[in-house]
Specification:
By secondary structure, the chain is α/β, with parallel strands linked by helices. The chain has one domain. The protein is built from 8 helices and 8 strands; from the N terminus they run βαβαβββαβααβαααβ. The radius of gyration is 16 Å and the shape is globular.
Length: 191
């Protein structure tokens, strides 16, 4: 499997940390790990070309509508509508980035399946909540990595986010309430 995680701002820094945890837990299954500034457009394209058909896990920034795609470490769009038929056909894709629906709508036509997020992927930046959300953020990707379906991964991730939001809402802390609202807004789905 191919794992790609950009890192260049607070949000991608958190997602990069989650990707490191995924790689550490699945070490023997990961054939390519592109991380941080090494996750450039050229490196991503090369990894996808060299390993056709392998599942790909993307952690970073998506492209807001009406655009579509995934941004490389340089901030440029690496996977857009014109390139996905070349790079994503016959793959399972895990998209831990905002606006995954912009790529997901092309899945059936191009021939890939995808777990991802509809709309924003809300990532808490408060240090106290980053590790608490890790389990929920990795629930779907881990299920797919263990050869589970993207449909089941979306359901598992949704339950995991809901469970964490419920735990935080049970607290008497206003910061827990705020974090719960952020975390509950995540909308994992599949295509």
């Amino acid at each position: 499997m191919i794992v790609i995680a950009t890192d260049g701002d607070p949000v991608t820094g958190v997602l990069h940390g989650y990707a490191r945890t995924l790689v550490a837990s699945l070490e023997t299954q990961v054939t390519t790990w592109l991380s941080g500034r090494h996750a450039t457009g050229g490196a991503i394209a090369h990894a996808l070309e060299m390993r056709p058909g392998q599942p790909v896990f993307l952690f970073g920034h998506g492209v807001a509508p009406p655009g579509a795609g995934f941004r490389g470490a340089c901030g440029k769009i690496v996977l857009d509508v014109h390139r996905i038929s070349w790079f994503l056909a016959d793959r399972v894709v895990v998209g831990s980035f905002c606006d995954g629906q912009q790529l997901g709508v092309h899945a059936r036509r191009i021939g890939f399946s995808m777990f991802g997020y509809r709309g924003p992927l809300a990532v808490p930046l408060w240090p106290r909540y980053v590790p608490r959300m890790e389990e929920a953020a990795l629930a779907g990707p881990l299920h797919v990595a263990r050869r589970g379906s993207v449909e089941a991964a979306a359901a598992i991730a949704a339950r995991s986010y809901a469970r964490l939001a419920h735990q935080l809402n049970s607290s008497s802390s206003w910061t827990d309430f705020m974090a719960a609202a952020v975390i509950a807004s995540n909308d994992p789905t599949h295509w």
